[in-house]
Every structure is written in C-alpha cells, then in structure tokens.
Amino acid sequence: MESSKIISDDLSYQNWQQKQLDAWENKCTRCGACCGVAEGDPCEHLVEASKGKYICSIYENRFGFHKTVSGKVFECVSIRQILHKWWPGDQCCGYKRH
Question: Is 55 exposed, middle or buried (0-12, 13-18, 19+ CB in 10 A)?
Fold first, then answer.
C-alpha cells in the first residue's frame, strides 16, 4: 500500500511540474525578439509561423552555439538567464511582461 502512495505522489508531482512548465512556455508571444528578429539577423533556426509569429525549428535542442542568418556565432540560452537584461524588441517579450 505504501509503494502505491509513493507512485501516486510521484505522478501528482510530475503532473504539477508539467503544468508549471506549460504555463511558463505559454507566456511566450512568439515575437522572435530574443532570437534576433528585431536586430535583423535572427537565428538560422527561427522560422516565421505566421505574420509576426516565430518558432524555433530545433526548439528541444536549441541550447548551445548556433549561427545567425548572416553566420555570426552566438550561444542560445534559457530565457531565464537573460530576463534581467535588455535586447532589441524585448518590450514584446511575454516573459518580461509577466
């Protein structure tokens, strides 16, 4: 009986974690500013999904070194690491507005 309680608690915690992650991810407005759109030289993996809305074609594997469309190398980091900083177009960022 004890092990089923632990499994139930683990599943509840995993569900809570997923809801937290989903809520965080849903704050993104898909403006592309953090990926260089406002600077005119975005990440080569950024794709326009619809007018003014962007998605990353390698989102699950985005962290690390990549290139912009013009070939400049940069390091993609978690938005949490740069929220306290400024970048062109950051006034559109859903994370900064919350």
Answer: middle
Q: Which helix (H) or strand (E) holds 87?
A: none
- Whole-number pLDDT of residue 97: 83
| Interior angle at CA 42, CA 38 and CA 47, nearest 5 | 105
Q: Which residues pair with 64 in a beta bridge?
A: 76
Q: Which amino acid is present at 42?
A: P
* Distance in angstroms (rounded) separating the CA atoms of residues 82 and 57: 21
For 24-57, write each residue's pLDDT tens digit.
889 999 999 999 999 999 999 999 999 999 999 9
Between CA 69 and CA 43 the distance in angstroms is 6
Question: How do the domains of the chain map onto residue ranges?
Answer: 2-97
Helices (H), 1-98: 2-25, 79-82, 94-97
